[in-house]
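Predict structure. Chain length: 152.
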Amino acid sequence: MDDGAEHAAPELHTLQQKVAYMVEKTFPGEKVSGRTFAELVRERGGSLSHSYFSNILAGKVTHPSEEILKALGLGFGVDWRFFKEESEVVDDVVSGLRFLAQRRTGEITGVAARGAGDAGLPPELLEFALSLLQDTGGEQREDAGPQGSERC
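Prediction complete.
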């Protein structure tokens, strides 16, 4: 088991840090060009120039308009408020991405959430579930459901 550094929440204070983090998590192992991302935003109904996106990644743009933040949200498939300076949704997005990454790697094999509603799981519950999995090191629990699915 690691020391937890792998699962530590990243420092995401600047727009550049947030966009670089989203590129890494949304397109793991891929090099995404500004043109590719701009086209993705366009396909999803937004507008963002490839050069503007490249300038954000380079740290040259620090205070874009709300319209640009919404375009970033469309491109990455997250709430656009994640990219605001004092974002309230950063923890939600980071927790959700950690959950998805652990699901993809097989660290989480299944989750049952009863009564979660349309809003999904609150970030506190996601963090709690992730901490339980980290504490157990992904070991099989005796009370796991069929096919070894963890129940949270």
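Summary: The helical segments are 15-26, 34-43, 50-57, 66-76, 90-105, 123-136.
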